[in-house]
C-alpha cells in the first residue's frame, strides 16, 4: 500500500519542488500554476508570498487566504493542492475552495482522489465544512475526483459545481 502525505508549503522549500513545478503547465483546465516559468529566485520569492497569503499577510485586493500543500506518494512529489479559506465573488463562480494539479506522468493512478481526500481533512482545520469544487464540464478526470470524494453536483454548464460536506 502506498504512503500518501501532504506537506505544507514552506519558504525553505527548494530545488526538488522548483523542478517539479516546472513540469506542470502554467494553465491547464482553468488551473493556474503561478510557479511555472519562474527562475529560482522568483520561485523563492513566490514561496514567501504564498506563505504570507496563507496567514492573510499582505493579501492583494482580489485574493483570499489560501494554503498550499505538496502531495507525496511514497516520498515522491506527484502533485500540489491549494485550499482557499473562504470564497470571494470570483471563486464562487470559478475556482471554488480547492484547486489542484498532478504532474502529467502521475495522472490516471487515483492520486488526485487521495490528495483531495487528505486536503478535505486539512480544510476542516480551517473551519470549512462545505467545500466547493469547480471544474470544466469536459474535465471528466476532475469530475470523478470530486464525485469519489462525495461531491454532489449543483450545476453542470460550462463549469461543473460540486459541493462536498465534511
Automatic annotation (TrEMBL):
Example of a GO MF term: acyltransferase activity, transferring groups other than amino-acyl groups
- InterPro entries given in the database record: Acyl_CoA_acyltransferase, GNAT_dom
| Domain annotation N-acetyltransferase: ranges | 4-166
CDD domains with a match to the protein in the record: NAT_SF (cd04301)
Q: Which Gene3D superfamilies match?
A: 3.40.630.30
Looking up SUPFAM superfamilies in the UniProt record yields: Acyl-CoA N-acyltransferases (Nat) (SSF55729)
Spell out the PROSITE patterns in the cross-references: GNAT
Q: What is this protein called?
A: GNAT family N-acetyltransferase
The protein's organism comes out as: Candidatus Dojkabacteria bacterium
Query: Species lineage, top-down?
Result: Bacteria, Candidatus Dojkabacteria
